[in-house]
Design goal:
Blueprint lengths: L5 H39 L14 E5 L8 H11 L6 E5 L1 H11 L3 H10 L2 H4 L13 H10 L12 E8 L4 E4 L4 H9 L8 E3 L2 E5 L8 H6 L4 E5 L13 H21 L4 E3 L14 H28 L6
Parallel strand pairs: 1-2, 1-7, 2-3, 7-8
Antiparallel strand pairs: 3-4, 3-6, 5-6
Length: about 325
């Protein structure tokens, strides 16, 4: 027997099935659509930019040549220290190597000043019969080594480099390790005044012959900010008295001319006004220290401006 409502029943069933299929497909479509929107929104969301860590900046203090005028370096260091200017490296030539080695060992600037005012010429000068020089240099070497307790250069508290000139080729040699007193002696061996220093069968004289203010050496060893102290720029206008005074004054003129090239590549240049102090005037050391302080204070705003910028860039901490 055929049911009279079967076709209608089948149509209703088919319609319901189709509706369920439509609903299912609709859910799938909307699900896929929202998934797509979520992916797009995530990919387009602003991402945190990760900047590479800035390399810490190295600050070098370059102390130049200038015999007794080198006491001015102590005044400069006093000002830098008092204003918390970090020093990561010291490059010294001649008198600059003498002061620089002691500071690198660990003496603060005020201790250096006390030592400078107490030192006697006889503590570091050993006069001899002129034979390739009036001063042997042995006492200077012994003074440095005893003061730093025979600490070699590579073990000083602050990385330190002493600049000398090799003979006969005239090459710049930078001592970065080995006997501290020997390196300082070589760096301080002013031609005609000191006998050349002998190291491993080689002869060395004052580094100022080639690099009175060794800015390039500081850059070579990784310095980012170079504070150079030039004590040869202010020339002595007086007439020299005696042989040694004539030699020292002539050499200081040479230093002044040679320094100009490298000085131009320094970031900060400090020029103590020590022209009235003769290169051999040991007794005017206190005046030289004061001149160093004055010159450093004049450049201090520029130094602080660069330091602040390095801190803002994350290259320098307190």
């Amino acid at each position: 027997m055929i049911k009279p409502f079967a076709p209608v029943y089948n149509i209703v069933l088919n319609r319901e099935a189709n509706l369920n299929i439509f609903r299912l497909n609709t859910r799938k479509v909307f699900g896929s659509f929202f998934t797509l929107l979520l992916i797009i929104s995530i990919s387009c969301a602003p991402k945190e930019v990760v900047h590479p860590t800035a390399r810490p900046a190295k600050i070098a203090v370059v102390l130049g040549a200038g015999a007794s005028r080198g006491f001015a370096h102590i005044g400069v260091l006093k000002v830098l220290e008092a204003n918390r200017i970090p020093v990561h490296m010291i490059i010294g030539t001649s008198a600059g190597s003498f002061v620089g080695s002691l500071y690198a060992y660990g003496f603060n600037a005020f201790q250096l000043q006390k030592m400078a005012l107490a030192i006697e010429k006889g503590d570091i000068v050993d006069l001899t019969i002129p034979d390739n020089g009036f001063i042997k240099g042995e006492k200077l070497e012994e003074y440095i080594n005893s003061t730093v307790k025979n600490t070699p250069i590579e073990k000083l508290r602050i990385p330190f480099y002493a600049v000398a000139t090799s003979l006969p080729d005239g090459q710049e040699l930078v001592f970065g390790k080995g006997n501290t007193g020997t390196a300082v002696r070589a760096s301080c061996s002013i031609p005609g005044v000191f006998r050349p220093a002998r190291i491993n069968e080689k002869m060395f004289v004052d580094g100022g012959v080639v690099s009175p203010v060794a800015v390039d050496a500081a850059r070579k060893y990784g310095a980012d900010l170079i504070i150079a102290v030039d004590i040869s720029a202010d020339l002595d206008t007086r007439q020299p008295e005696g042989t040694i005074d004539t030699i020292l004054q002539s050499i200081n003129i040479m230093y002044s001319k040679l320094a100009a090239t490298q000085i131009a590549r320094a970031d900060i240049v400090i020029r103590p006004k020590v022209g009235y102090i003769g290169s051999a005037e040991f007794k005017k050391r206190h005046e030289a220290i004061l001149e160093g302080e004055k010159a450093a204070y004049e450049t201090l705003p520029n130094i602080k401006a660069i330091i602040d910028k390095l801190k803002q860039n994350g290259q320098l901490t307190e």
